[in-house]
Each structure stands twice: as C-alpha cells, then as structure tokens.
Amino acid sequence: MKRHINSILLLVVLLVQASCINNLLDYPATTKISADTFWETTEDAEKGVNAVYNAMRNAFGLFYRLDCYPNADLVYFQNANSQSITSDYWNKCYASINRANNAIVQLRRMQSEAVTEKDLNLLKRYEGEVRFIRALHYALMIDLYGDVQYLDHVPTQEEAYSIARTPITQVRDFIMEDYDYAISVLPDSYESSDDQGRATKVAAYAFKGKLELFWACWKKNGRPEVDNFQQSESEAKEYYEKAIGNFKEVMKPAYNLQLFKDGAPGEYVNPNYLQLFTLENEKCSEVIFSIQYGGPNIGQGEEFVKIFGNRSVLNGWANMQPTNYLVNLYQSTKTGDYVEPVVLNKNQNLTNGSANPKTYEGRDYRMRGTIVWNGQKMRTITPDGMTIGDSVPFMFGNKNGYLDYNDSRTGYMFRKFVRQYAGYSRSNGPQDFYLMRLPDVWLMYCEAMNELYGPSDELFTLIDKIRGRGKLPALNREKFKTKETFFGAVKQERAVEFVAEGQRFFDLRRWRLAEKVWDYPNGRELRSTLNDFIQDQYKNATDRTFPRYYIYNIPEDERVLNPNLTQNKPWL
Predict the structure, then answer these.
(1) Is residue 17 pLDDT above 80, yes or no?
(2) What does the alpha-carbon distance between residue 18 and residue 430 come to, in Å, rounded to a whole number?
C-alpha cells in the first residue's frame, strides 16, 4: 500500500473542461491541489466525483484482458504477463478506492454544511455515485482475491502498513450497503446529455444482483481457496432469490431498457451487433453502465484499436486474437445448432477447413461482428486516424496485398472494438467500454431462475431474443427442457455475446469449469488455422494449478510492506 500513500492524501481533480466533450469524463490533463481548499461548491464536488469516475479506467478499462488470463480459452493475448496482471488489479483497485473514500469524506462534510435542500440532494446523489463505484471495485477484489483489506476511509501511513484482510462475508455486506445507498439516492436516468454515463439506480440494481448471483454460485459450487468459506445449499438458494429480485427490478418496463434496434440482426455485412460497439450507439438503451472515453487530444481516449486491431488499421498490434475454440461456438443460422469443428489445415479448399473462407458461411451474425477470417475485409486507416483507405482482405500467412496482421498467431483477427471511421488516432479513441448490458441482466436472470425453478416460457423468450440478433432460430424447447440443458444454453449465449468484454473469466470461475474447459489433467494445445503450434495449455497440470486459477495471489511486495497481510493458500 505504500505506493498509494501520496495519492491518498491528495485529491486528483479534473479542472478545465475541453471544448470537444463526448462523455462526462472528457476533461483534459489533471492537476493536484489540496482537498481542504478545493471541495467548497457543488461545481467543485462534480469535478471531484468525475475524478473518481476517471480512476475507474485503471482497473475496468482493461477488463478485456481477463478473458485471456492465465490461459487463453476463446481469446488469446500475445505477449501476456499474467503475474503483472494480478498485481495490477490489486494496486489499481486500491488507488481508485482511496480516491473514492476521500471524495465521500468531503461530500459528507459538504452535506452537513449545505444551505439549500437542492444542494443537499445533489451532494447525496454524488455520494451515491461514488459509493456505487467503490462497490464495483470491492466486488471485483473479493472475486479475484477472496478476503481483502476493507477501507472506508483514507488510511494513515501506520494503518496502511498494518491493516489485515477483512473476511469476504463482511466485505460483501459493506458492498451491499453501498449499492443500497446508491439505489436510494440515484435517479432512474439523467435528463441532461452532459450527465449521460453516470451511475443510475438501474445500474446499482443490476450490479447488486450480479454480486448476489455470484455469491449464490460460490455457495453452491464452493470456494475452497478462500479461508473459512463454507458451501451452503440453503444460502445459495437465498442469494439466487435475492438476485432474481434485483434483476426483475432492472427489467421493469418503466426503465424502458431494450436490446439495440430491438434485437434485430441487421445486414450480414454490417450486423447490428457490430454497430452496437460504435461511438454513435454507445448511449443506446441496452447499455446500463460503461467506462467513459473521449477524444481526440484531451488525454481521455481508449486504445482498443492498438490491442484488437491490425497494422493496416491505425497501426494496431493485434495482440488480442480470437481462437478456433471461439469459432467453434458460433452456431448455424439454419439449424440453430453447432456445426462440425473447423479442421485446422493449410488447404484453403478443404471442406470445413480453417483456412477455407467458405467454412464460415451461414453462422451466427455475431461472428461476423466479432471476427475477421480468411477473405474477410476491413478498411485501412492511416496511423494518424485521419484517412480511410480501401477495403483490404485478410489472408493468414500472406501479408502481400492483404491486411498486415503483425505477428499474431491464431489465424483470426478481431473486428469487434476495431474502429472503421476516421477522426481519432490509435490511442485517442472515443468508444466507451461496456460493463453492464441488458443481455447480461437477462442471462443472469435466466441462470438464477433456472437454478431455482427450471426452464419456463419467460426464460426461453429472453434467450431467443438474444439469439435473434445473431439471426439464430429459437431454441428447441423440448431439447432444452431440463435445468442442465437449459443451463447449457445460458453458458453458450454468455460465451458468444460477451466476447472480450471480461465476462468469460468470471463465469468459468464461479461455475468451477476451468478443469473441464482445459481437460484436467491432460490439458490441451492451442494451434493456428494453419495447424501451427502456439502453446500448451495446462498440460500435465498439478494439483495446485487450478486452485490458482480460481484465486489470485496477494502481491508479494505488498506483503513485504505489511506483515499482517496473509497469502492465499494455493500460493503459499
């Protein structure tokens, strides 16, 4: 915690609003000033709260990386360092939490001094926003690390060096208190476009339900890596029921949430699923909460193209790459079922061969909105982001006259998150990163309801709406009539709907499915579309391998500074 002490004692605020504002956090460079002389007016408070939103990018803005750690499943991340990721989340979460705690202290002081009821209510709303953000960070931390140090204030240096980990159950209760407070003071939505992107009552209900669902899964499936954590069938049922209640609240017609373009698939060449992840549609009613970005030239931009794109488009790195395991999940628009797995082979004419462009015809439209395979085209864009060129095809193994895929290895590239419009450089993108969308709520609701009561017409209808945007036929209700088979349908939709949105990693953990995915103890190989070897995945796994997947290690440098900070059992 030592590295955070200085930033804890100083409030980082965003002072000067830029002339080109896309989102509420689109402010230029930060300035450090004394908190005691800054938090005086409601305008000061707004800027201070915006600084807390800004800090969220540190942990949640790179959420997509978690789809690839510590081993690639549906997405491969080249040049990955999983150890640095585990430390990153610990440090970045506490940096944000400390900023939130400082803001809460100042907001409460301002509330006690408020002259008008209008100002008092506004300051309470700001506190609700900040407590919502604090809750998000702590929910992430107990998922990653189990017991964590809980702080609801700015610690002294002595406290920072000595505070022990708080049991996960207590941290959960504190998180729930933050969500409940947010629900009590936040609006359903915001009238002003300047406030779009702020936390709402709906978002608080959604994330509270998500934590309750995760807690139910942990109680059902176990978390033996967490000290003193006991499975409990009765507690699992209790939390499934609580989650259902909060998801039902989000789904009320009064909030007017709906799938983008009502779930219509759109045209295959430009499916609506692809359009959802563009600047013009980031504020649609499907998006419940997101990390805000804006550009250009104000230091508030995203770098998705750098990570997901290719050299021909804004000089991207193509570090994030879809795998053949993901490709095999996309179902047929004709049958609604899986097709035969692709055959990894160099022959571009081989029937069902991975190098053959015809292999991918007639699949879920979301595949076209997510992946680029042999023969698929993208428009080139110059590195400065100002000039769009011709549409150029991709051909793995050949860059001459084709898209330059850098040194990516799987044979697939991303289309999702890769800009195809001009005006923004590689590191100044304006696209928000979605943390909660309506399909997430629907699928979590389906999961919880199915667990307690089994499939129903209501649940089939919700899943069919999500599948509809991929132009897939409705589920065969006879085939998916049991709890087990319907849960399989939920898993399938979560896998393809939220590719590279940071959901897969957490799903596999709460369902305790890592051993099944990676075929314990034999493991599996990751290979390219040309059948070239990329890496072994959990081959000859030891008894300690998968427990380490289910819980991160406490950073050792933090434990050196604080002797009361214990280590998680699988990492001893």
Answers:
(1) no
(2) 14
Residue bearing tokens 């936390």 = 199
> For residue 42, which of 104, 105, 120 has the smallest C-alpha distance?
120
**Closest to 436 in 3D by CA, of 205, 143, 196, 174:** 205
Check residue 72 and give its pLDDT: 82
Per-residue pLDDT tens digits for 395-411: 999 999 999 999 999 99
pLDDT tens, 37-63? Answer: 789 999 999 999 999 999 999 999 988
- Quick count: other Cβ atoms within 10 Å of Cβ 193? 11
Q: Which of 303, 265, 311, 259 has its CA nearest to residue 285? A: 259
pLDDT grade, residue 82 (50/70/90)? Answer: low
Count each helix (H run) and each strand (E run) in the chain, helices first.
20, 14
Give dist(CA 20, CA 486) in Å, integer.
47
| pLDDT, the chain, mean | 91
413 and 321 in contact (C-beta within 8 Å)?
Answer: yes
| Closest C-alpha among 528, 524, 529 to residue 353 | 529
Cβ 114 vs Cβ 123: under 8 Å: yes
CA distances from 328 to 337, 378, 394 (A): 11, 22, 20
For residue 217, give Cα distances in angstroms to 239, 430, 447: 9, 36, 10
Long-range contacts of 470-473 (CB under 8 A, 24+ apart): 470/265, 470/273, 470/330, 470/331, 470/333, 470/364, 470/365, 470/366, 470/367, 470/496, 471/265, 471/268, 471/333, 471/364, 471/365, 472/331, 472/332, 472/333, 472/336, 472/364, 473/333, 473/334, 473/335, 473/336
**Residue among 238, 79, 120, 104 nearest 174 (CA):** 104
Q: How far apart are CA 359 and CA 373, in angstroms?
A: 10
CA–CA separation, 133 vs 50, rounded Å? 11
Residue 90 has a pLDDT of 94
- The predicted-structure confidence for 336-349, as pLDDT tens digits, reads as follows 999 999 999 999 99
Give the Å distances, CA to CA, from 343 to 286, 328, 346, 354, 394. Answer: 36, 10, 9, 5, 19
pLDDT of the residue at 532: 97
The span from the CA of 473 to the CA of 71, in Å, is 33
Distance CA 86, CA 101 (A): 23
| pLDDT for 331 beyond 70 | yes
Specify the 3-state DSSP secondary structure of 322. Answer: strand
The set of residues, in sequence order, having a beta carbon less than 8 Å from that of 452 and lying 6+ positions away, is: 237, 240, 241, 244
pLDDT at position 28 over 60: no
